[in-house]
Amino acid sequence: MEELVRIKNMYKIYNPGEDEVRALDGVDITIHEGEYVAIIGQSGSGKSTLMNMLGCLDVPTSGSYYLHNQDVSQMKDNDLAQIRNKEIGFIFQGFNLIANLDAIGNVELPLIYRGISKGARQKIAKQALSIVGLEKRMKHKPSEMSGGQQQRVAVARAIAAKPPVILADEPTGNLDTKTTKEIMEILRELHRAGRTVIVITHDDEIAEQAARVIKLKDGKIVADYMNQQGEE
Ligand SMILES: Nc1ncnc2c1ncn2[C@@H]1O[C@H](COP(=O)(O)OP(=O)(O)O)[C@@H](O)[C@H]1O
Ligand SMILES: [Mg+2]
């Protein structure tokens, strides 16, 4: 399988000097196409910092990051924005939907930035919404949907353009147990369908579902193992 993520000797240091925080302290990670990886660790271990790096939302203090064989570690904001749009589908804890757009409008949004025509956009967005079981809610605004439905819209938005990587940061952090199961099942299905899924979580049950678990502590990787019960 093709290599998607190659991070070498990555550091992210906040407040360099006396009060410095090594949020990432020499991290090496390689992730191949089609993997299902959970990144775990306690609060403050560096998960969100790593998510920001993986998602090209920020650049490291030092070290290299090749995403799909492109060095993105020194890129400027404009180029990073393009890489994000092309390579990564984001799912956030707080859904991050646009309040005054309906479900289909939200899913279409990243497709607009890709320059896809209106007709094609609507078709792609409808397909994505039916994958997450929301074909009957296309015209609903976020305020007219439950948390679980909103997160499913966010999943549809993340997968619509078929980005190489789906990156989820605590995707079930705001959901109840039942809805958590539904969202995790959708992620599992996406993985089965060949997508690369990276989930950041502090929830052990979610981590158990992933095929591979990477554990962070104090900005360092302290474990990286294949899960027996997880997906192949
Ligand atoms: N913008 C920032 N400025 C200074 N310190 C930060 C900043 N962001 C995160 N940190 C620190 O970096 C460490 C890792 O934080 P974070 O990546 O948010 O961890 P996690 O997501 O695992 O809780 C923590 O000690 C945190 O306080
Ligand atoms: Mg965090």
From TrEMBL:
Gene Ontology MF term list: ATP binding
PROSITE patterns given in the database record: ABC_TRANSPORTER_1, ABC_TRANSPORTER_2
Family annotation (CDD domains): ABC_MJ0796_LolCDE_FtsE (cd03255)
InterPro entries in UniProt: AAA+_ATPase, ABC_transporter-like_ATP-bd, ABC_transporter-like_CS, ABC_transpr_LolD-like, MacB-like_ATP-bd, P-loop_NTPase
Ranges annotated as spanning the membrane: none
Boundaries of every ABC transporter domain copy: 5-232
SMART domains (alphabetical): AAA (SM00382)
Keywords: ATP-binding, Nucleotide-binding, Transport
This protein's name: ABC transporter ATP-binding protein
Organism: Aequitasia blattaphilus
Species lineage: Bacteria, Bacillati, Bacillota, Clostridia, Lachnospirales
